[in-house]
Amino acid sequence: MVRITIVGLGPGSASAMTREAWGVLEQADEVWLRTGHHPAVVDLPVGGKLRTFDAVYERADTFSDVYKEIATEVLALGARERGVVYAVPGHPLIGEATVSQILTGAADTDIPVRIVAGLSFIEPTLTALELDALDGLQIFDALDLMRLHHPSINPDFPALVAQLYSRTIASELKLVLMNQYADDHPTVVLDGAGTDRERIRPLPLYEIDRYEVTPLTTLYLAPLPAVTSFEGFQDTIARLRSPEGCPWDREQTHATLRTNLLEECYEVLEAIDRGAPEALREELGDLLLQIVLHGQIALEEGAFRMTEVIAQIDAKLKRRHPHVWGGVDVTGVGEVVTNWEAIKRRERADQGEVERSLLDGVPEALPALAQSAAYADRARRIGFDRVDANGVWVDLPESVGDMLEACLATLVSETDTRRNAETVSSPAARMLGDALLVIVDWAARHAIDPESALREANQRFACHFTALEMASQEASVALEDLPMDEIQRLWKARSDSGA
Fold this sequence. Notes:
Elements: E1 4-8, H1 19-27, E2 30-33, E3 49-52, H2 54-59, H3 63-78, E4 84-88, H4 97-109, E5 113-116, H5 122-129, E6 138-141, H6 142-145, E7 159-162, H7 167-177, E8 186-191, E9 199-204, E10 217-221, H8 230-241, H9 247-251, H10 258-274, H11 277-300, H12 306-319, H13 322-325, H14 333-350, H15 368-380, H16 386-390, H17 398-413, H18 417-421, H19 427-445, H20 450-474, H21 484-496
Parallel strand pairs: 1-4, 1-5, 2-3, 2-4, 6-7
Antiparallel strand pairs: 7-10, 8-9, 8-10
């Protein structure tokens, strides 16, 4: 026996209601409305009492609280032997938060539920805008989109955004949409679709919050004119690799594309160094081409899908940022890095992996200078300063040593050390560049290949550092927990032994 009957009232007047809905209401001795503010209410064929939950809207603080309280009350009414008839605007399963909560609660308590369909706002909207919903039309809730930092809309296809409610919501939604669409992107603001006060107003995106909106306002976003979505680009690459595509692209493998991938990475870095946004935009596209090509090849080989690539990196980012997606508090960047390393160790332990070196993951194929910088960064994560441990400046040519000392003094004197050290045009960066030039010139004069010499030095450092890690493991003490003087003693002993 059905205890809860949920009826859709349609989008406008009672004339748009289904015959089934009309019949249910006509036979009911009591009907509860989510809200009495609906055009069909005055003409409803209710044979008994008509009640509303409008009072809940007046006393609750948020919409979430409103929907939760209404759902709880409907479930309580449905537990009665006589059950309850609950009527909502539109279709019960389109944009009705109370209905989804009622269905969940009813399933948990074994209360039978019947859904009586109604015409939603979508059908009259399609009619007003002369749209075919099967042409890829997407439908979103404005309240969900406005909470995002980037809209989850595929811009290659049209979209409807419902329940704008207010100009405040429209304003916040506009800012999110502008991360995907141009400020003047064409939209249509449609209010009261399916009612006798239906209004259609074409507007550029930046103007959607300049006009009065109501709970019956829907925003239509036209698709962008060219392929702009990740999925659309994937289809382009898949066609290139198809039998009807390009012979060159079909022949490529992960191995043959290695050089292309490396070259594109360097071209991106060059565009960044030149401070050229337009060039960077183009080079990022070329790099994305390489990534999607590798993804398509993997798909064809049955290795993995691009969705798995994205899911894996997204999950990793959220796991390793508990201060963003969890309840962890951090005091600064240093604590973020420390937490990151601790989380990585826990992940490896959970997967049964053997304890790895902190230096693992730095590619051996990196240029020696980039590899050396990566090793230094990894070591500093646990407070280890390899310059202090090595005392390397003592053995450098005097001119180079003087330049590095001056460079260090400049770094220390600058207010924002981290930002200035990473800015190519900063005084410290210029001095360091000069020092590197002197080192390379000195190496050339002594017939030394600086790339090979630095790579050998990197290997020696990695060997010493992993030995330190092993020593700390044998002592059952994390390397970062050892006093720095003890780390330096072990390092010196290792160096003096000639290992």
